[in-house]
Amino acid sequence: MSIMHSSDATVRPVPRRAARLRLNKWPGYTAALWGFLFAVPSFVWATGSTFGAQSTVSPSLVKLARDGTPWFLTVLVVTGFLKLFGALVGIGLTRPRGPRISFLMVFCGAGAATLLTWHGGLFVVHGVLAEAGAVTVEPDLAALTDWYLYLWGPWFIAGGLAFAGATELYVRQGNDRRKLRLHGTVGALGALALSVASTATGIG
Prior knowledge:
This protein has 204 residues and is mainly alpha-helical. The protein has one domain (24-196). 77% of the residues lie in helices and 0% in strands. The chain has helices at residues 6-10, 16-23, 26-46, 59-67, 70-92, 99-131, 139-142, 145-173, 177-201. It is globular. The chain starts with 5 loop residues before the first helix and ends with a helix.
């Protein structure tokens, strides 16, 4: 009769797939943290406070917040909740979900990645051109060039890369990668079209 040692029964190697799944959660949590942190200023400024905005944001926007302009405060609150929703998307991308939820997570994740990276890239490119004297900047906005070049631009790009990484890892671990990538492509193209339209019309 063979005797099974207790160590043989209890000590098992950790599956490589499980280890990878734990390691691959960090982009999603990074995206979630990005969304939560970025939502804070929106809600703070929606109260009429301009803390942190006076030297980093366009003076016209600061005035709208300080004056408590209703439509602008509404925009701040809505964008704040959208950022919180983005944080939930980041969390949603950290573990497998059902088919419908997975399609929604990938759609939103790819859209957020595209929108944020594009938006941040525009800030950086415009800042570089302004620093080089290739474009003119209005006097009241000249002091903001460095903030958009070194703070807001990289901040948006960092958020975009976090969502991109989380979305890609989620797709790789999914059961139906083809449909997931299709939803991701639609989300990315929709976000890009929205960003281009808002930039062209001067809204964004």
